[in-house]
Amino acid sequence: MNEKLTQYLNGVFAPYDEVKSVTELKADLHSDLQERFRDLKAEGKDDETAFEMTIESIGDIEQTVQEVANLSRSLERQVVTNFNASNLPTSDFAGVVAHKGQFKSSALRGSNFTNADLTGSSFASSDARDAKFDGANLTDCNLSTLDLGNVSFNRSILVRTIFSKSGLDGAKFTGVRLTDVTFSLTDLRKTIFQNCIFDGVEFKSSDLGGMRFDGQTFIGVKFEKTALNEVSFKNATLKNVSFPTSSWSRKYYRIIKTICFDGAMMDKLTYAALKGMDANLSKVTVI
Description:
Elements: H1 2-13, H2 20-42, H3 47-56, H4 61-80, E1 142-144, E2 152-154, E3 158-159, E4 162-164, E5 172-174, E6 177-179, E7 182-184, E8 192-194, E9 197-199, E10 202-204, E11 217-219, E12 222-224, E13 237-239, H5 250-257, E14 265-266, H6 268-275, E15 285-286
Parallel strand pairs: 1-4, 2-5, 3-6, 4-7, 5-8, 6-9, 7-10, 9-11, 10-12, 11-13, 13-14, 14-15
Helix pairs in contact: 1-2, 2-3, 2-4
């Protein structure tokens, strides 16, 4: 009858043999059931009755085992995505799924994250120069205080992504829709944006001096305490774009006059706000 108990447990645990914590649970349970069976036999129960009562004593064991296995696998995935303080230059992460991955204070120069799903991940204080994030899902990612020099963001998914105090010299955003993205305290003068749509983006205390946004689309974008001298919005589309009007100095008004809006299309409110700042709108189309 002890062999029958063993066979029963083997059947229940078979789908989870690769999970370490479940294997340990099986060994403990096997020992307890053997002891329970012996106690019932000592009370005068026959083999079949003792077996049935032993099995009944553990309740819905299959559900318990499944819950333990699911928890264990979840924890194992968390361990796999923790790469804090790791030395991983030129690593291949293409196509991986690493939700809430931790890449803080890591060496990631030249690494390939093409088409990876990195939702909710953090790369704070890392060196990611020359890395590729082409097609990567960077929704809710924290890209703060790290070096992103010459990084490629070709058709990346950027939703609520935070860039703060990061180096973006030579970084290239191509064919990207930036949705509710924040650029804070970041120097963007040498960053390249091509064929992008800026939707709900906030530029806070960042330097955009000399940037060319020609032909690109801006919807609900806010420029807050941002350097805009000599920026070009030639042939761009601006809808509900905000240029804050509080605490302006004459110097800031002079900077607004240096911005090129030739060929741009903008809504009436954006046009009125810029006109009030004496921006040159002689070649703008109001939509």
